[in-house]
Write a structure and sequence with these properties.
With 451 residues, the protein is mainly α. The chain has helices at residues 5-41, 45-81, 85-113, 117-120, 128-157, 162-186, 188-213, 229-260, 265-302, 305-341, 345-358, 362-378, 382-407, 409-433, 435-450.
Length: 451
């Protein structure tokens, strides 16, 4: 079905209303990464390399906590769309229990791995102690990061995108303050402490806004709590593929760092700064992805499947457009960005060269991010996760093993750009052909016929 601009204006306006606060949330998160990188970068290349060495492992843990949030928040979106607020609150209760148990186990695992991990990754002995200290601080933060992720996701599914944006902006400000206090005293460890304390404060406020203050999700209402194994089963069905995808993808990032590590501290630091700078381009993609999950999920819950797919398509197209624009801007300004992040000229030059290679793939990377968000709104996570999992290992890592030996760090970013383009095309195809939209349409037709 074809639409003209006038017909799509209400949907585009709704997408913009929901995605703008989410994009601002991404901006504040990325600014916090810039702050950490700049303040630690002032300590020298070794300090930057120590964080760059373990950053992919922090993403791996973050991917698992994100999957937990997805498993329950998608169900919240469906319940909110169907005007079943009591059931939505019950899903939140189940989510809090699961989040506490899983994040506690992750935190304990991180604490146990913090010392041997940098050695396993092939880090230079000069940077391993700082890498251990940073990862230990991160591991202690995991339960609060999980609480923040679940609470903000559930708030977004009610349509409240503003609260997470404001609170994440506050977290950014707190991170600056705590880093200013602790980095001069503790160096790299101080950066970890600052981020952890900022997350702790904001996660508690975020949980209060979600579970106490939000009128649709307030858990203090007088209603009987009922344990429903089906809620956990559905969360597992939705979230497990996402968790496996995140584990596999971030494990691939860890493998990539292990491939890069023998190139030396300059290469490791340049790679870390290039990834940090590129993350600024992600902000419209992830913001639109969150909006797509919310709008598609609520439309599915309301039984309007055509609108659900329309929202998914609009968000995906906007994701490609906006990330293409941000990628072009970053390609122009990245030398200035790296001046802010590190005083080391060798690191700046190498980071600029490799980043410009990766930015070629930004439009299709945007497609992959937003289409995956739309598909999550329907509950379609298994096939997209399988496609992403196979793609990053078979394309990125395989190519990296062939190219890094010949081209150094440039080879890693060539492999990355090719993989991101392939990923975008796969997700675009899945968005077009997913049976989940049709499945819900058939279910709703059956319900209407029976009524």
């Amino acid at each position: 079905m074809k639409y003209n601009w006038t017909e799509l204006k209400p949907q585009i306006h709704q997408v913009w209303i929901l995605s703008l606060p989410a994009i601002l949330t991404q901006i504040t998160t990325i600014i916090m990464q810039y702050i950490d990188s700049a303040m630690v970068g002032a300590l020298g290349a070794n300090a930057s390399a120590s964080i760059g060495l373990v950053i992919p492992c922090t993403w791996l843990f973050g991917g698992v906590t994100y999957a937990v949030a997805v498993g329950f928040s998608v169900q919240v979106a469906h319940r909110i769309g169907a005007e079943q607020d009591a059931q939505a609150r019950n899903v939140v209760r189940h989510g809090l229990v699961a989040a506490f148990l899983i994040s506690s186990l992750l935190s304990l695992l991180g604490i146990l791995l913090s010392k041997p991990l940098p050695i396993w990754l092939g880090g230079d002995p000069a940077i391993c102690p700082d890498a251990t200290a940073y990862f230990l601080a991160f591991s202690l933060m995991v339960p609060f990061s999980q609480l923040n992720s679940l609470s903000s996701s559930c708030l977004q599914c009610t349509g409240d995108m503003l609260t997470p944006s404001i609170l994440n902006a506050i977290m950014c400000l707190l991170d600056v303050i705590f880093n200013w206090i602790f980095i001069p005293q503790y160096g790299v460890l101080g950066a970890g402490i600052g981020t952890a304390l900022a997350c702790l404060v904001v996660s508690i406020i975020m949980a209060w806004r979600c579970c106490i203050s939000n009128p649709r999700l307030c858990l203090l209402q007088k209603e009987k709590y009922s344990f429903e194994s089906q809620t956990f089963k559905k969360a597992f069905k939705i979230g497990m593929p996402v968790a496996l995808q995140e584990i596999a993808m971030n494990a691939a990032m860890v493998a990539a760092v292990a491939i890069i590590a023998p190139l030396g501290s300059i290469a490791v630091a340049a790679n870390a700064f290039a990834v940090t700078a590129e993350s600024l381009c992600y902000m419209p993609g992830y913001g639109l992805g969150y909006a797509a999950t919310t709008l598609v999920g609520r439309s599915v819950g309301a039984g309007d499947i055509k609108l659900a797919k329309l929202y998914g398509n609009i968000c995906t197209a906007l994701g490609a457009l906006f990330m293409g624009v941000t990628g072009l801007i970053m390609a122009i300004i990245c030398p200035l960005v790296f001046i802010l992040l590190t005083p080391d000229q060798a690191v700046r030059d190498l980071a600029t060269e490799v980043l410009r290679i990766g930015l070629i793939a930004e439009p299709l990377f945007g497609v992959s991010i937003v289409a995956a968000g739309a598909l999550r709104g329907t509950g379609d996570t298994f096939i997209p996760s399988l496609l992403n999992l196979g793609n990053i290992w078979l394309v990125r890592i395989s190519l990296a093993l062939l190219l890094v030996e010949r081209f150094g760090l440039h080879g890693m970013w060539i492999a990355m750009a090719i993989e991101l383009c392939v990923r975008g095309l796969l997700m675009l195809y899945r968005q077009k052909t997913s049976k989940y939209y049709r499945q819900y349409e058939l279910e709703n037709t059956k319900i209407n016929f029976e009524q």
